[in-house]
Design goal:
single chain; alpha/beta; Rossmann fold; 2 domains; 4-stranded parallel beta sheet; 15% strand; globular
Length: 325
């Protein structure tokens, strides 16, 4: 287990480009597609990270973080903390590297995510959400041995996510805004770092569900905050109980503004993607589209990052059947 934490520092463009080469044989270069909605809607393009081998963007960061481990760190095995997608990413990358993996997993994670982690060879340690969040803050958990890979507060993990920003601007150089969901903040910090390095005038927006929005609250207050009204929801991959001070320091450099959407808006976005683009998105993956449709990110072109599609299909059908738009 790592006993020291590196100071927070900016992610250099050269690091992002090196990470891109490093993880190229592990990840998919996901497509960016236009969502055809009509003239009355903003111009929205979907970055389909749900098409990664683990159906979520976390593989980018995990592949980079595992690749950069020292030999002694690999020998100890790795462990992480996750509601599902980070656990799958670390397990996938660890299996490729021949490294044992354990995941302290939120016990209410969707069955599909739990099964995928087991299938990738990870040892699962189920715990309640608040215990998992505490372990994230402390970077330790009794019973989990080996080298800890933080699922968002890790420079190498974030740099892996930043490779997505290179792809977005290559495929849509006219991008006016990018919207990413916020859980711990690793995705938006990485993508935002790449976007700001290459095209600083492009706006970067973070989005959270109304039931768990510590980043938006922190932006309003000007300092990292605890979200006291946190509630669990089907948006299990985004929205935390608090904003980690280290992540707040990282995000301040890369994010222009923070948006909050309702659970109803999120369901509507899930249904819209299914009907218009035949895309299956989990709740967190639909938040950016919900935010784009609100009009608060401008007229576009807007890139909405579909961060993942790991959702039980019965639950997905139930949620979109409730949606109206």
């Amino acid at each position: 287990m790592r006993t020291t934490v590196e100071p927070v520092r900016s992610i250099e463009l050269s690091e992002i480009r090196a990470a891109r080469e490093r993880i190229a044989n592990t990840i998919a270069r996901t497509p960016l597609i236009r969502l055809e909605l009509g003239a009355e809607f903003p111009d929205v393009r979907l970055k389909l990270e749900n098409l990664q081998p683990i159906n979520a963007y976390k593989l980018r960061g995990a592949a980079n973080a595992v690749a950069l481990l020292s030999e002694p760190e690999r020998e100890r095995g790795v462990w992480t903390i996750s509601a599902g997608n980070a656990g799958q990413g670390v397990a996938y990358a660890a299996r490729q590297a021949g490294v044992p993996c354990a995941v302290v997993v939120v016990e209410t994670a969707p069955k599909s995510k739990l099964e995928r982690m087991k299938g990738l060879g990870a040892k699962l340690i189920p715990v309640p959400y608040d215990i998992a969040w505490k372990a994230l803050e402390e970077r330790s958990f009794s019973g989990a041995d080996g080298t800890f890979i933080h699922p968002f507060d890790d420079h190498n993990f974030i740099t892996g996510h930043a490779t997505m920003g290179l792809e977005i601007l290559e495929d849509a150089p006219d991008t006016a805004a990018v919207i990413a969901s916020i859980g711990g903040g690793g995705l938006i910090t990485g993508v935002g770092s790449a976007i700001k390095a290459l095209k600083p005038e492009t706006k970067v927006f973070g989005v959270e569900p109304e039931t768990a929005a510590p980043a938006a609250l922190s932006f309003e207050k000007g300092s990292p905050q605890v979200f006291t009204n946190w509630k669990a929801s089907f948006v299990d991959g985004a929205g935390g109980q608090s904003m980690f001070p280290r992540m707040w320091e990282r995000m301040k450099r890369a994010v222009d503004d923070y948006l909050v959407v309702s659970l109803e808006e999120t369901k509507n976005a899930m249904r819209l993607m299914a009907e218009k683009a035949r895309v299956i998105s989990e709740g967190a993956g639909a938040l950016p589209l919900a935010a784009a449709l609100s009009g608060r990110a401008g007229e576009g072109p807007i890139v909405a990052i579909v961060s993942g599609g790991n959702i039980d299909l019965n639950k997905f059908c139930e949620l979109i059947s409730q949606a109206e738009y």
